[in-house]
Write a structure and sequence with these properties.
About 50% of the residues lie in helices and about 15% in strands. It is of the alpha/beta class. The chain has one domain: Ribonuclease H-like superfamily/Ribonuclease H (Nucleotidyltransferase, domain 5, 2-Layer Sandwich), CATH 3.30.420. The chain has a 5-stranded mixed sheet, with helices on both faces. Helix 7 crosses helix 9. It comes from Pontibacillus chungwhensis.
Length: about 240
């Protein structure tokens, strides 16, 4: 790890910044910059009953676990739901074309191909599309601490305004609600009998997390949680 840090600081960080330059002068970049700069989040969502609120459950596939070392997002998957209502899920999935080469082990883990990534959107395009898909909803990830940090670090790297939409960490809710269970996503999927899809695929993981999250919403009222804001605060230990 120390060698990777040194390599990134001395060489790769500067090379990454150099490769980004052509994108920073495009119209799409300027449009996204303005959108983020002027974006206002709907605070009324926080007051909604948590069992009725709109949520976007999302998952990222990345080239590593440390965005501060230049690891990148290579896929975003998301599911839009309306509380506990069993409505048809709206789905979102985009491959994201990386700036740096992707190790073969990452491709093996995710099932992606180099062709998939070459045909993917730039991070600018993918984030803009995800922002549109998820607008007027609460973001949910498992764990959100990882996914939200990754998104915000990517925005910073691309010299874009930081986006801070309201979000709930589903894993933290699970730890509060089911303390006797193992809290890894795979364990919770097994415990709740959720249909298992191929893992490490952003859309599949979002689908399974969405099913798990709806189970959470069915049970959460027993803990005295009624609004979205109460759920967010409880997850964060407030």
């Amino acid at each position: 790890m120390d060698l990777e840090i040194l390599k990134y600081i001395l060489f790769e960080k500067h090379m990454y910044a150099y490769k980004l330059r052509p994108y920073l002068n495009t119209q799409k970049y300027q449009e996204l910059y303005e959108k983020l700069l002027n974006r206002e989040h709907n605070e009324e969502l926080l007051k909604k009953p948590i069992q009725e609120a709109p949520f976007t459950i999302f998952d990222l596939e990345t080239t590593g676990l440390l965005p501060e070392l230049g690891h990148e997002i290579i896929s975003i998957g998301a599911i839009r739901i309306q509380g506990t209502n069993h409505v048809s899920y709206e789905r979102f999935h985009e491959y994201v074309r990386p700036i740096r080469p992707v190790h073969q082990r990452t491709l093996n883990l995710t099932g992606m191909t180099r062709h998939d990534l070459r045909g993917g959107k730039t991070f600018i395009e993918a984030y803009d599309a995800f922002m549109e898909f998820s607008k007027d909803s609460i973001l949910v990830a498992y764990p959100a601490a990882f996914d939200m940090k990754f998104l915000q670090t990517m925005l910073k790297r691309w010299k874009l305004p930081i986006d801070t939409p309201p979000s709930i960490d589903a894993q933290k809710l699970v730890k509060n609600m089911y303390p006797r269970h193992k809290h890894q996503l795979d364990s919770m999927i097994n415990s709740f009998g959720i249909t298992q899809l191929e893992r490490h695929h952003a859309l599949n993981d979002a689908i399974m997390t969405a099913e798990l999250f709806q189970r959470i919403l069915h049970d959460i009222e027993e803990f005295g949680i009624k609004t979205v804001e109460e759920g967010m605060n409880w997850a964060e230990g407030k």
